[in-house]
Amino acid sequence: MDLLNLLLENKIENTLYFPPNIKSSWLVEGVLQLFPEEQPVPEKQSQTLSQEKNTDTLIISAGIHGNETAPVEILLQLLSQLAQGNLPLQHNLLLIFGNLPAMREGLRYLDNDLNRMFGGRYKNFPAGNETRRAIELEAVVHQFLSQPAIMASERRRHLDLHTAIRGSCHEQFALLPYQTREYAADFLQWLEASDIDAVVFHNAVGGTFSHFTSEYFNADSCTLEIGKALPFGQNDLARFSNITEALRNLVAGSFIVKRNKPALKCYRVVDAIIKQHDNFRLNIPEDTKNFTVLAEGFEIASQHNHSWKIASPANFILFPNAHVAIGLRAGLLLAQLT
Ligand SMILES: [Zn+2]
């Protein structure tokens, strides 16, 4: 049976074994902790090696939205390579399969959007599958990061992998959570080296998983949108090979900055369109692509007594979606950074 079926049938814990130099334990369903075991070092080399030793902490999550299948397949591929000893593990690693009940149904979520609930925001939603999971994931991340081996590690990074619902003028992009401290230069370099097309810097805190790990645990975090996904088994993983390779390099602690694509485009969020009324309207076609440029003065959305007009330079739209629940984001307006 393949790993995906084992994961979906909750049999993976008792089936997957790792080489002796990887210490593994499942913390809750769909959450696997992997630690590199200290290897005995011959005396002659011990000094040089210990100087080079640099164990950081890495969290990679996928399937926070259950219908975003390609990231789940990519994570399973990494897992399989680690288990077969084909990928060395340099860092403490937490792999998270986010929303298994939604994955089984092929749905984004069962009750409410899990990626709006982090940082305690699950309290604003009626109890359900996703509120339970948000509570569980917050607790498990806290438990993982509170272990002595991890407290001693220098850096924490979190990559939360997603695929977009709609088409996009930039197929692969990262969303960096709002943070008051500086963004780590080597993290931005890794994003550049991963050959994604664009990065977007948020201007406000939010309920996403990557905001949570950045805000509460000072992790270098991002939501990584890797393209459009098809149902399980229909994804062409070759389309995501740049991401897979960048993740492998990060896990193995061996990334080098080399970029094959044109220069990375940078944007910042300038305004969020929040749906607060039943009469909310978004005045663009349903299939408008992410990063579409809109004309200055155009009224992109309206509701009750509020209207959003495009003001230069905030003229790019991201994640437009009129069908979100009241109180949630129906789109972001972006300005390009030069
Ligand atoms: Zn998603």
UniProtKB/TrEMBL annotation:
Its EC number is 3.5.1.96. Keywords: Arginine metabolism, Hydrolase, Metal-binding, Zinc. The active site is at 225. GO terms for molecular function: hydrolase activity, acting on ester bonds; succinylglutamate desuccinylase activity; zinc ion binding. The keyword Cell wall biogenesis/degradation does not apply. Pfam families: AstE_AspA_cat, AstE_AspA_hybrid. Residues 263-336 form the AstE/AspA barrel-sandwich hybrid domain. Zn(2+) binds at residues 65, 68, 162. Binds 1 zinc ion per subunit. Pathway: Amino-acid degradation; L-arginine degradation via AST pathway; L-glutamate and succinate from L-arginine: step 5/5. It catalyses: N-succinyl-L-glutamate + H2O = L-glutamate + succinate. Its cofactor is Zn(2+). Residues 55-249 form the Succinylglutamate desuccinylase/Aspartoacylase catalytic domain. GO terms for biological process: L-arginine catabolic process to L-glutamate; L-arginine catabolic process to succinate. InterPro entries: AspA/AstE_fam, AstE_AspA_cat, Aste_AspA_hybrid_dom, SuccinylGlu_desuccinylase. PANTHER family: ASPARTOACYLASE (PTHR15162), SUCCINYLGLUTAMATE DESUCCINYLASE (PTHR15162:SF7). Belongs to the AspA/AstE family. Succinylglutamate desuccinylase subfamily. HAMAP family: Arg_catab_AstE. Transforms N(2)-succinylglutamate into succinate and glutamate. This is Succinylglutamate desuccinylase.
